[in-house]
């Protein structure tokens, strides 16, 4: 019995000795990432290492009577990284193009399919009041597996219902009918028909 164990161990070591230089016997799993896509000039994914380069902040978040320090990047900075802009404004800009980015929506999706929706204007610093972070640490530690590796944390909401656990995707979409206007004005039956 003992000699067969030695024979197996010797064969394994001998086999490892003949692996070509530079060959890895086991592949490392890819770093966790969150996908950012939709109506943006660029789309892609961001890992923690890439998010660290976007200027993370650590802010206090109070929910269910407890305050934690969460580390993450503001969602508007994430969107700007992929080319999001509010768009031009001015009397010479066609109505359909005026601050078009502020009329888009952001859909955040969790691993289990749960979604939260925001206007891009509300999460844009200097325009809206909503402070939303794409977070990966709480109280100096990585998020637990049932919460992370990424979480959308909405610090300004009174309840945590839009603070999505296990965030997988941020998607920017054009709001349907947001630019449709009729001579009768916004909200008129004709305006609503044209919007759909």
Q: How are the elements arranged and paired?
A:
Elements: H1 2-17, E1 33-38, E2 44-47, H2 48-52, E3 57-63, E4 66-74, H3 75-81, E5 104-110, E6 115-119, E7 132-138, E8 141-142, E9 151-154, E10 167-174, H4 189-195
Parallel strand pairs: 1-10
Antiparallel strand pairs: 1-2, 3-4, 4-7, 5-6, 5-10, 7-8, 7-9
Report on the structure:
By secondary structure, this protein is of the alpha+beta class. It has a single domain (31-175), classed as Oxidoreductase, molybdopterin-binding domain (Sulfite Oxidase, Chain A, domain 2, Alpha-Beta Complex), CATH 3.90.420. 18% of the residues lie in helices and 30% in strands. It contains 4 helices and 10 strands, in the order αββαββαββββββα. The strands form 2 sheets. The chain has a 5-stranded mixed beta sheet with strand order 2-1-10-5-6. It is globular and about 50 Å long. Mean pLDDT is 82; it is low at 4-19 and 185-196.
């Amino acid at each position: 019995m003992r000699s067969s164990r030695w024979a197996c161990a010797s064969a394994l070591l001998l086999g490892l000795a003949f692996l070509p230089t530079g060959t890895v016997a086991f592949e490392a799993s890819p770093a966790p990432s969150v996908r950012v896509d939709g109506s943006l000039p660029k789309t892609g994914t961001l890992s923690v290492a890439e998010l660290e380069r976007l200027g993370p902040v650590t802010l206090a978040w109070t929910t269910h009577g407890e305050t934690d320090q969460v580390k993450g990047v503001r969602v508007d900075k994430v969107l700007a990284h992929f080319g999001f802009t509010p768009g031009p404004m001015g009397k010479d800009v066609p109505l359909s193009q005026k601050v078009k980015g502020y009329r888009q929506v952001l859909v955040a999706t969790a691993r289990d399919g749960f979604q939260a929706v925001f206007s891009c204007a509300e999460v844009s610093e200097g325009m809206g009041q909503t402070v939303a972070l794409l977070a990966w640490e709480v109280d100096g530690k990585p998020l637990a597996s049932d919460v992370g590796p990424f979480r959308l944390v909405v610090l300004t909401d009174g309840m945590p219902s839009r603070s999505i656990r296990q965030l997988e995707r941020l998607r920017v979409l054009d709001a349907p009918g947001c630019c449709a206007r009729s001579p009768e004005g916004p909200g008129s039956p004709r305006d609503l028909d044209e919007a759909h």
